[in-house]
Design a protein that fits this description.
The complex is a heterodimer of chains A (about 220) and B (about 230). Chain A is of the alpha+beta class. Chain A contains five helices and nine strands, in the order E-H-E-E-E-E-H-E-E-E-E-H-H-H. In chain A, strands 1, 2, 3, 4, 5, 6, 7, 8 and 9 form a nine-stranded antiparallel sheet that branches. In chain A, a hairpin with a 2-residue loop joins strand 8 (about 120-125) and strand 9 (about 130-140). The longest helix of chain A is centred in the last third of the chain and has 20 residues, at about 185-205. Chain B has a single domain (about 20-210), classed as Hypothetical Protein Pfu-838710-001. Chain B has helices at about 1-5, 10-15, 30-45, 125-130, 190-200, 215; strands at about 20-30, 45-60, 70-80, 90-95, 110-120, 135-145, 150-160, 165-170, 175-185. Chain B contains six helices and nine strands. Classes of the chains: A alpha+beta (about 220), B alpha+beta (about 230). At the A-B interface, strand 5 and helix 2 of A face strand 5 and helix 4 of B.
C-alpha cells in the first residue's frame, strides 16, 4: 500500500463518458502500463429513522475490491470504522433504525493498470440502477512510498503526462498540508467518498427545474 | 451447505463467501474447587492444546423503544493478554446476538450472531454516534479448547470495579462459566446433536445444558447487571 490519489476527470463537451475513458485508457497503455484486472469501489448510504443526539445520522459504507473482506464505514461529520464486510449484515439487522437511501448506491468501476511502481485505475461512476456514466474517476497509487509530501511530485508528473489537471480532493489537500503525513488504509475510501458526494450533489443540482442554478459534473479542485 | 461442512474453519468458509450466522450453545457452571478435574478431562478429549485468554467485554444496546422495534445488542471483546514482541495484536471483535430461539425441542440453545473484526481505536465513538448506549462490562479469564467445530471455554467472570479500568477487577462468584458453542450458517441443525453428545460425555463432572436466561433473570435475587 502506497500513497493514493483519486481525482475527478472532467467530461468533454458533446462527448460521451465512454469516449473520455477510452481516450484516457489509450494514453495510459501508450506509457507501457499493463492491464491487471478490474476494480470496483461502491458506497451504500444509510440514514437513521429518528434523530440521534439531535440530528439525523448518515452512514456511508464504502467497499473496495482492493480490500475485498473489509467495509469502511463513515459516519457523516463523525468517526469512521474499518471492519469485516459482515458489518453490512449488521446494518440489515438494524433496518428499523437505519434504512438504506433508495437509488443512492453509487459505484465507480473500471480497469486496473500496473505501470512499474504505479497502480492506475480508471473508473466510470454510476448511480443506482442507471447505467449512464455520471463522472470519471482516476486513481493513482504510488506504491513504494507512504509519505504524502514525498509522493506528490511524482504523482503530479504522471498526471501532467496524461494531460490531466491535478484537481485533488480536500482530503488529499489536508494530508499534503501536514508534514510527514503518512498513508492510512481508509485514505483511499475517504477520497472516493468525497468525490461520490460531489457527483451526487451535482446530480441533484442538475435535476432541479429549469431556471435554478446548476453546476457541471466536474469536481472543482482547490489547488 | 455441503460446501460449508467441508471447510475446516469459519475463516476458511468466510473466504468463500459463506457467513456463519447461527450459534448453537450450551452453558454450565463449575466451582473453583472442581475446575482442575474438568480442565484435565477436556485436555484429554479435545483437539490440540488449550489456550489461555483474558478478555475485556463491553456490552452496548441500541434501544428500539421510540421506533417500537426490538433492541439491538452488540458486545466489543478485546484481549488483555500482552502481545509477544514482533507480533501484531489481533483486531477486537464486535459481536451481535439476538434473543435465543425458545424452541424447547431443540437439543441446544440457538441464536443469531454476527462476528465482526473491527479496528479498536474508533469503535467506541462509532457505536456512540450510531446511538448505542453502554450497558455493562466484565473481564473474562480462562481457557479455551477446540473439539472439531465446537469451541469450549471455561472462564471466570470478573467485575470491573472502575468503569473502563481493567486493572481493577474482582471475581464475580466462586464458580466458572462453561460454554460449548459452535457458529455455522443457517440450516446446519445437525451440529446441535454433536455439541449435545459431547456435553453428555462430561455429565459425570458437570451438567452442561440449555439455560433459559430470561427465566434466570426473573429469579428473585438475581442481579441483572454484573456491575451492580
Amino acid at each position: 500500500m502506497g500513497v493514493n490519489c483519486v481525482i475527478s476527470v472532467p467530461m468533454e463537451e458533446n462527448k460521451s463518458g465512454q469516449y473520455v475513458i477510452t481516450k484516457l485508457q489509450k494514453k495510459i497503455e501508450n506509457l507501457g502500463a499493463k492491464k491487471a484486472g478490474h476494480f470496483s469501489v461502491d458506497c451504500e448510504t444509510y440514514q437513521s429513522q429518528i434523530p440521534i443526539e439531535g440530528q439525523v445520522k448518515v452512514i456511508n459504507n464504502v467497499h473496495d475490491t482492493e480490500y475485498p473482506a473489509s467495509t469502511f464505514s463513515f459516519v457523516e461529520n463523525g468517526p469512521h470504522l474499518v471492519a469485516d464486510n459482515t458489518l453490512d449484515m449488521l446494518f440489515a439487522k438494524m433496518d428499523s433504525f437505519y434504512a438504506p437511501k433508495k437509488n443512492f448506491k453509487i459505484e465507480a468501476k473500471g480497469v486496473r493498470y500496473e505501470l512499474n511502481d504505479f497502480l492506475i485505475k480508471v473508473g466510470s461512476v454510476i448511480i443506482g440502477q442507471n447505467t449512464s456514466v455520471k463522472g470519471i474517476l482516476l486513481q493513482i497509487d504510488y506504491t513504494p512510498c507512504i509519505l504524502y509530501n514525498d509522493s506528490w511530485g511524482i504523482i503530479t508528473e504522471l498526471l501532467h503526462i496524461l494531460g490531466i489537471n491535478p484537481n485533488i480532493t480536500n482530503f488529499f489537500k489536508s494530508r499534503l498540508e501536514k508534514k510527514e503525513s503518512s498513508v492510512d488504509y481508509t485514505d483511499c475510501a475517504q477520497q472516493y467518498l468525497e468525490l461520490f458526494n460531489s457527483v451526487r450533489k451535482s446530480m441533484t443540482v442538475n435535476q432541479q427545474p429549469p431556471g435554478m442554478s446548476s453546476s457541471p459534473v466536474m469536481i472543482q479542485g482547490r489547488m | 451447505m455441503e460446501q460449508f461442512i467441508s471447510h475446516k474453519s469459519n475463516a476458511e468458509a468466510m473466504v468463500k463467501g459463506v457467513v456463519p450466522t447461527q450459534e448453537y450453545y450450551l452453558h454450565g457452571s463449575i466451582l473453583d474447587s472442581n475446575r482442575e478435574t474438568l480442565l484435565y478431562r477436556l485436555q484429554g478429549s479435545c483437539d490440540g492444546d488449550q489456550s489461555k485468554f483474558l478478555d475485556h467485554e463491553q456490552v452496548f444496546v441500541l434501544k428500539g423503544q421510540a421506533l417500537n422495534a426490538p433492541d439491538v445488542n452488540v458486545s466489543i471483546r478485546k484481549s488483555l493478554l500482552p502481545v509477544p514482541s514482533g507480533a501484531v495484536r489481533n483486531p477486537c471483535q464486535m459481536r451481535y446476538t439476538n434473543d435465543p430461539d425458545s424452541d424447547r425441542s431443540k437439543p441446544t440453545m440457538v441464536r443469531t450472531c454476527l462476528d465482526i473484526a473491527v479496528n479498536e481505536d474508533q469503535i467506541l465513538q462509532y457505536l456512540k454516534s450510531l446511538g448505542f448506549s453502554f450497558e455493562y462490562e466484565f473481564v473474562s479469564k480462562g481457557y479455551v479448547f477446540r473439539r472439531g467445530r465446537t469451541k469450549i471455554s471455561v472462564s471466570k467472570i470478573h467485575r470491573v470495579l472502575v468503569k473502563g479500568q481493567t486493572e481493577k477487577i474482582e471475581p464475580l462468584t466462586e464458580s466458572n462459566l462453561i460454554e460449548f458453542s459452535c457458529t455455522a450458517p443457517a440450516g446446519t441443525e445437525h451440529l446441535q446433536d454433536e455439541i449435545k453428545a459431547y456435553a453428555d460425555q462430561l455429565k459425570p463432572h458437570v451438567n452442561i445444558d440449555k439455560q433459559d436466561v430470561k427465566r434466570l433473570v426473573s429469579t428473585p435475587g438475581f442481579q441483572n447487571n454484573p456491575n451492580a
